[in-house]
Amino acid sequence: RSSLSPLRKINTVINSYAIARQKEIETLQKNAEFRREFIADISHELKTPIFATQGYIHTLLDGAIDDKQVRMKFLKRAAKSLDSLDVLVKDLLTLNQMESGVIKFNFTDFDLKDLIQEVIDQLEHKASKRDVVIKLEFDPEKSHITHADRQKIYRVCQNLIFNAVKYNHDGGEVKVTLKSQKNTIQVDIKDNGQGIPPEDLKRIFERFYRVEKSRSKERGGTGLGLAIVKHILEGHKSKISVSSTVGKGSIFSFSLPLEKEKKPIEKTPVFEN
Ligand code: ADP
């Protein structure tokens, strides 16, 4: 039998209802704040390429179009600004789909070392422009078959290896190491570039966070790459970790499950008389 009087019981119910309502209001306020900040960030990021394209086109219309050399230079720059706008919008859509949980993961078995080799082949051209060498190390005796979303893991490796090239110095080195352990494959992406200061390290996975805004933009960065990496790995119940020393370089690491090689089913011998 409860010792509380009916009035106190009603009071307790009202109090817990008020607390629940208060929490709901706080969540709604936080969501509204997040949305406001997100829109402010996006508008700010979109302004740069739009403003640049506008500038080139207006200069052409004001007469620069008559000079063939200037015309080509300005058209190329306008095209480059539009390309970066395209990348930014695509990245924003991907991130938005991930954050709202609508993106689907398509898990299959594949060889992680082959995927990384494909990414390296794709980035080789950009790396060689700056004399950056990309190396891949793995134990050829071991299996590197994983179970994951191949397309999304391609994106993760592409973002991380491209960053290791972008934020490296000319003539630098990027080393990608694959380590097959008992149940996991660990991927380490190590560069000997500029490194990341400790106070920035915990913030680089936030959308639009850049250590050096000007340098990142000049290198074609949207500031969304690592936020996308983090979300994709979360969808694989994995995490990205980073350690870095300013002036020496950084190592980004993540793990994926090692898919056990399936043993062939032994056939029962059939004896015939
Ligand atoms: P961005 O598109 O600007 O490269 P990311 O989200 O990929 O954006 O990275 C966020 C920031 O983290 C970058 O702007 C850069 O300042 C820093 N960063 C990422 N990778 C590296 C790296 N390998 N070395 C040094 N800084 C890095």
TrEMBL record:
> Any idea which GO molecular function terms this record carries?
phosphoprotein phosphatase activity; phosphorelay sensor kinase activity
Could you list this entry's UniProt keywords, alphabetically sorted: Kinase, Membrane, Phosphoprotein, Transferase, Transmembrane, Transmembrane helix, Two-component regulatory system
**An annotated GO BP:** cellular response to phosphate starvation
Residue ranges of the Histidine kinase domain? 41-260
**Enzyme class at the top of the EC tree:** transferase
This entry's Enzyme Commission designation comes to 2.7.13.3
- What GO CC annotations are associated with the protein? plasma membrane
Reactions catalysed, as given in the entry: ATP + protein L-histidine = ADP + protein N-phospho-L-histidine
Protein's name in the database: histidine kinase
Q: Which residues of the full protein are shown?
A: 86 to 358 of 359
